[in-house]
């Protein structure tokens, strides 16, 4: 059985940040990274562009063999975590291999959550969570005329846009009354919806799928909606959400909620085991008593860094400040930004210019920024994220900030973040 000092299961942003943090403090101990994919690490954010052909599958990798060699990391491809024995400090992989560890990071991410719709098992459908998914979907486009996308979250809307750009007639079905309801209010989502409609994408909102069935040729699917509408398409994509991958935890003693419960150093309830990224349920920023899954790239990087520092015993370790949502969303030449919470505070400024696809909303509480949202309005989402995380008092600059959020935030960054 192979032995390693640091074992990292997963190979996306959280895992890579952990590797970097470990190697910053510990260059001698052995590190092993296990990926379920049979390729080098990549970002899930690139998948819609693989579907459209804008990004080539062989050019999307975040790290290569030279990187792992340079940092003396054993990278094991094509194996997922199957079993975990915390009492003996070892794991079993789907490949049949077993690995013993001294310290373990679970960065197993999330997997597509399929809706409980009658007939699902009778139709051919696609999901979009892995590079293999993206390649299969891209290859399936040949000869297709139309597509149905179930789900109007970020993945579904990204996919719908790229399918439309590939020349398909696209219909999006969403059970909620708006697209992207978890990120924007009704005024903002109306702008996004109007842009999609202008590009020929049909939106069937506030409608639930009640049955799926194969087309007569066995390809694509027929979709029955609750309002009686019947749809049919050559291709069906399901993007109705994801759930953390934790099926390997049975009997190992790690406490879970929706995901793996962790403390402020990303440690689980079992010694020598940490979790980070989409699988970790950590403290919320606005309510420290409530633990949340904050499935965004910047947070995965932060959690992975903290976990790696904790695993390596780095004295510079700082506790996780809590999860703050941050999403950047580009669509048909437009850009939407969503940072923080819409409900933690009062709306200090809101402007809507639907005719020009412009929107800005700033939410503040006790002189501090708690959320900022925009469409085709210039501000730095990363800087705003830091303003929220650092709880910067904006009261002395309130009017300047509300009038010119980007310029004021950049000035604060240049003068105080040194």
Instruction: Please tell me how large the radius of gyration is.
Output: 22 Å
Number of E-state strands:
24
Q: What structural category characterises the helix and strand content?
A: alpha/beta
**Helical residue percent band:** 10-25%
Major β-sheet annotation: 7 strands, mixed
Q: What number is the mean pLDDT?
A: 95
- Shape assignment: globular
End-to-end span in angstroms?
47 Å
Number of helices: 10
Poorly predicted sequence stretches spanning 5 or more consecutive residues: none
Estimate the strand proportion. 25-35%
Notes on the protein architecture:
- There is one protein chain.
- By secondary structure, this protein is an alpha/beta fold.
- The protein is built from ten helices and 24 strands.
- The protein has helices at residues 13-25, 47-52, 65-70, 131-140, 154-165, 186-198, 297-312, 381-389, 398-403, 405-416; strands spanning 2-9, 31-34, 73-76, 81-85, 90-93, 98-106, 110-112, 146-150, 169-173, 202-204, 209-213, 221-225, 230-233, 235-238, 242-244, 260-261, 273-275, 280-283, 291-292, 326-331, 334-340, 346-353, 358-365, 368-375.
- Strands 1, 2, 3, 4, 5, 6 and 17 form a seven-stranded mixed beta sheet that branches. Strands 20-21-24-23-22 form a five-stranded antiparallel beta sheet, sandwiched between helices. Strands 10-9-8-14 form a four-stranded parallel beta sheet.
- α1 packs parallel to α7.
- The longest helix has 16 residues, at 297-312.
- The protein is globular and about 60 Å long.
- The model has no long low-confidence stretch (mean pLDDT 95).
């Amino acid at each position: 059985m192979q032995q390693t000092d640091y074992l990292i299961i997963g190979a996306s942003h959280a895992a890579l940040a952990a590797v970097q943090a470990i190697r910053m403090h510990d260059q001698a101990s052995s590190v092993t990274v296990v990926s379920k994919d049979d390729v080098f690490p990549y970002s899930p954010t690139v998948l819609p562009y693989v579907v459209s052909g804008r990004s080539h599958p062989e050019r999307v990798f975040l790290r290569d063999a030279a990187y792992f060699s340079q940092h003396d990391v054993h990278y094991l491809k094509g194996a997922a975590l199957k079993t975990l024995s915390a009492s003996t400090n070892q794991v079993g992989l789907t490949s049949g291999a077993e690995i013993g560890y001294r310290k373990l990071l679970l960065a197993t991410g999330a997997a597509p959550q399929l809706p409980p719709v009658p007939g699902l098992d009778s139709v051919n459908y696609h999901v979009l969570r892995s590079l293999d998914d993206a390649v299969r979907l891209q290859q399936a486009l040949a000869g297709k005329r139309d597509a149905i996308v179930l789900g109007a979250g970020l993945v579904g809307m990204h996919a719908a846009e790229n399918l439309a750009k590939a020349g398909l007639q696209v219909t999006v079905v969403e059970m909620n009354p708006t697209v992207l309801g978890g990120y924007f209010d009704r005024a903002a989502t109306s702008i996004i919806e109007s842009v999609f409609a202008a590009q020929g994408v049909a939106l069937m909102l506030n409608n639930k799928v009640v049955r799926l069935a194969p087309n007569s040729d066995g390809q694509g699917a027929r979709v029955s909606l609750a309002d009686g509408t019947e749809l049919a398409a050559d291709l069906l994509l399901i993007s109705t959400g994801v759930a953390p991958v934790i099926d390997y935890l049975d009997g190992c003693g790690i406490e879970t909620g929706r995901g793996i419960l962790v403390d402020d150093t990303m440690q689980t309830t079992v010694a020598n085991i940490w979790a980070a990224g989409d699988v970790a349920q950590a403290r919320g920023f606005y309510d420290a008593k409530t633990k949340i899954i904050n499935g965004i790239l910047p947070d995965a990087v932060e959690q992975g860094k903290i976990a790696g520092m904790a695993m390596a015993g780095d004295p510079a370790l700082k506790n996780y400040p809590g999860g703050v949502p941050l999403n950047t969303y580009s669509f048909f030449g437009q850009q939407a930004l969503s940072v923080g919470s819409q409900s933690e505070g009062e709306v200090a400024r809101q402007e809507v210019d639907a005719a020009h696809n412009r929107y800005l909303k700033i939410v503040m509480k006790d002189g501090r920024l708690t959320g900022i949202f925009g469409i085709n309005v210039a501000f730095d989402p990363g800087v705003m994220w830091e303003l929220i995380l650092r709880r910067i008092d904006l009261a002395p600059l309130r009017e300047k900030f509300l009038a010119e959020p980007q310029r004021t935030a950049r000035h604060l960054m240049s003068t105080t973040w040194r």
